What does this fold into?
Amino acid sequence: MKKSKEKGAFLRQCVGCGKRGLKNEFIRIAKTPDGRIVIDGIQSFGGRGAYICNNSECLKKAIKNGRLSKNLRSEVPETIIKELKLVANEKTDG
It folds into this structure.
């Protein structure tokens, strides 16, 4: 993570497109210490995390290229992928 010069906050990077930004601009997916993969809506779960832009195109890229699984060091369950698609569509629709 790089630190933003203008705001003093750490920047996160989308695993789909590579865009950098503040963490509230992204959807966070976390691998908890007990090995579960969850969508971290409040962005406070412990463990490994991956960030994706709030749009379905970045999600498609992250899944197709395997970047999401690689970043989390674990296979992402289909149920989580379906939930992510719903969350990304909600964000882009309104």
